[in-house]
Design a protein that fits this description.
The protein has 352 residues and is an alpha+beta fold. It is 29% helix and 21% strand. It contains nine helices and 21 strands. Pfam families: Fer4_13, Lactamase_B. This is Metallo-beta-lactamase domain-containing protein. InterPro entries: Metallo-B-lactamas, RibonucZ/Hydroxyglut_hydro.
Length: 352
């Protein structure tokens, strides 16, 4: 068990102690009962569970425009599809929906990549997508080969991590998987072609998902701070202790950034000036955000950990949740961080 609660709906569901994860699953539970018109007491048998699941499998939200692509009611509002294919998906009534059908090959490609990445398999096409096998071959996705070569988005988000983004780093001293995508043999095969995985760096306790399957597949050493180790990660190979910093070879520095959780750690790829931030900091639409409403330890401590980032050189923030942030240089990064800290400091003062 993680956090303080486990919510049982139709089956045992492991809930991270996040408000948005609880709400997402509660929304599903409420809709299950509405969709088939039965009470909670009847949601106890395996037969009913299967029936509900089948009914929900392709329940098209009325908020979708007419056409081939649509989002169903299982959507947990993780935002994945909206930033992967913004030309197609938007947010309506706290869930995603299709507001415009793809009209170009690129828009269709992006929409199908979002479909494959959706953690709850909530995106569908009315007609079988015969080009799916070719789209599967695009993962992991290169993020920006000109500025940050060898860094990929793994796609295939896991519901166990509420759709957290996992990254793959190709490096001559050994490749690194940052947090855990949903395990699929197709993705594993593509990563194998890229040279496999030497390290699996887990930024914090929430986004570990299928780490055991990836570890067995590639025999990689998993890295996690000891303060975030739980029963399901007790066998990780490398447990970080203390406040760091630590290093993985010459190019990667590990920065302890407690606040979101006690053992939150960011990975800094120094030569490319990229910070893999986990749930520490990200961009929310156009502004920096640290999702303090989901904080599990201490918001003031998380702010201090954000302040610590002023001492490091990086131009990219690649988060687990939220959107990427790109800066032209370290000075612009620091300007944005300082403005964020001032804004949050004022908000903290006003709330006292």
């Amino acid at each position: 068990m993680v956090g303080e609660g486990v919510l049982s709906t139709m089956k045992d569901v492991r809930i991270i102690n996040y408000q948005h994860r609880f709400v997402g699953i509660k929304r599903q539970s409420d809709f299950y009962r509405k969709a088939i018109g039965i009470g909670k007491s009847n949601l106890t048998t395996a037969t009913t569970t299967k029936t509900v699941s089948m009914k929900l499998e392709r329940q098209r939200r009325t908020q979708n425009v007419e056409g081939d692509f649509f989002v169903d009611h299982k959507c947990i509002d993780c935002d994945t599809c909206r930033w992967m294919a913004p030309q197609v998906f938007t947010r309506v009534d706290e869930q995603s929906a299709v507001y415009k059908q793809p009209s170009t090959e690129k828009e269709r490609l992006n929409a199908l990549q979002a479909l494959l990445s959706c953690p709850t398999s909530s995106i569908h096409t009315e007609k079988p997508a015969r080009d799916i096998p070719e789209v599967q071959k695009t993962f992991p996705l290169r993020i920006n080969e000109q500025r940050i070569p060898g860094i990929f988005d793994c796609g295939y988000r896991s519901e166990a991590s509420y759709g957290a983004t996992s990254y793959f780093i190709s490096h001559p001293d050994g490749n690194i998987l940052v947090d855990s995508p949903r395990y699929t043999e197709r993705l594993a095969h593509r990563i194998e072609i890229l040279g496999g995985v030497r390290y699996m760096f887990l930024t914090h306790r929430d986004d570990v998902a299928d780490h055991n399957k990836w570890s067995k597949r590639f025999g990689c050493d998993r890295v996690l701070h000891s303060q975030d180790v739980e029963d399901n990660t007790a066998d990780v190979e490398i447990k970080l202790d203390g406040d760091g910093p630590w290093n993985l070879g010459n190019d990667f520095e590990l920065i302890h950034t407690p606040g979101h959780t006690r053992g939150s750690v960011c990975l800094l790829y120094k030569p490319l000036k990229v910070l893999f931030a986990g749930d520490h900091i990200s961009k929310d639409q156009s502004e920096l955000s640290m999702g303090e409403q989901y904080n599990q330890q201490s918001v003031p401590l998380q702010l201090e950990s954000v302040r610590k980032l002023l001492d490091f050189e990086f131009e990219w923030i690649l988060p687990g949740h939220g959107r990427r942030a790109e800066f032209k240089d370290t000075q612009e990064k620091n300007k944005a961080l300082k403005a964020f800290l001032v804004m949050k400091g004022q908000a903290q003062t006003q709330s006292v």
